[in-house]
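> call design_seq(struct)
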């Protein structure tokens, strides 16, 4: 969380980006953009909660995924509530961008 806040400062987005260490299950509101950069297995385990926090027509951005774990995450989010919109890769890493269905 500390590093995420520092990165927001460095990128000039700290006024519009909220970073918290509040457990996901305790957050009740939805957001137009949700970003998660954690282990692939944790992304899959938390898939329902992440999707629930993403507003309809909002974006769920999953990053920091090793390329070899990309399919694990894609399969974990294939429950119909989100649509895979884009995949970006850089060396050994993947970023999956989903659009929350209405």
């Amino acid at each position: 969380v500390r590093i995420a806040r520092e990165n927001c400062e460095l990128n000039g987005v700290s006024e519009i980006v909220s970073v918290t260490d509040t457990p996901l299950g305790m957050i009740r509101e939805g957001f137009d953009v949700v970003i998660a950069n954690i282990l692939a297995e944790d992304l899959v385990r938390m898939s329902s909660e992440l999707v629930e926090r993403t507003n309809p027509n909002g974006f769920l951005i999953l990053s920091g995924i090793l390329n070899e774990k990309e399919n694990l995450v894609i399969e974990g989010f294939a429950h119909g509530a989100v649509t895979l919109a884009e995949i970006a890769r850089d060396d050994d890493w993947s970023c999956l961008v989903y659009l929350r269905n209405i």
